[in-house]
Write a structure and sequence with these properties.
By secondary structure, the chain is mostly helical. It has 7 helices and 2 strands. 64% of the residues lie in helices and 3% in strands. 37% of the residues are buried. It holds the Pfam family DUF6628. This is Carboxymuconolactone decarboxylase-like domain-containing protein. It comes from Sphingomonas cynarae.
């Protein structure tokens, strides 16, 4: 197994909407919540309805940053694979409504804390915003 496969063991999500979530998370995680490219990809994907998914994605990222006991590893946007943390984040957004217990466990493992309600609410809001705009996130 190559070093890249060890550091980035997960393939990109097959779901195009999950890839939008991943791109926005990577951009905001690396460059801050006001990253212009993250905003542009949301505008491109959602058109005039971009504000709600963008603002809720920012809220999710802020909650993740303030709640995590440690660092959350993210890869650069150009990487064609995902870190374990990125795979968990995409799975949380994809499963928060359909499998809330699984999402809770993934979130607690990712953040290293027990109280994950704020992050789960933000992830649920992101998932709902994407679905309401016709772009449900599948994991």
């Amino acid at each position: 197994m190559t070093e890249t496969m060890t550091i980035l063991p997960h393939s990109l999500p097959a779901c195009a909407n999950a890839r939008i979530v991943l791109f926005a998370m990577r951009r905001m995680g690396a460059n801050g919540l006001a990253d212009a490219r993250a905003a542009h990809v949301m505008f491109t994907a959602f058109g005039q309805g971009f504000r709600r998914p963008l603002v809720l994605m920012r809220a999710l990222m802020a909650e993740l940053a303030s709640s995590a006991a440690g660092t959350i590893a993210i890869a650069p946007c150009c990487c064609a694979r995902m870190t374990p943390a990125e795979a968990a984040l995409v799975a949380i957004v994809a499963r928060v409504e359909s499998a809330p217990d699984t999402a809770r466990l993934l979130t607690a493992d990712l953040l290293g804390v027990r109280r994950v309600e704020n992050v789960l609410m933000a992830a649920g809001a992101v998932a709902t915003a994407f679905a309401d705009e016709g772009r449900p996130v599948a994991g």
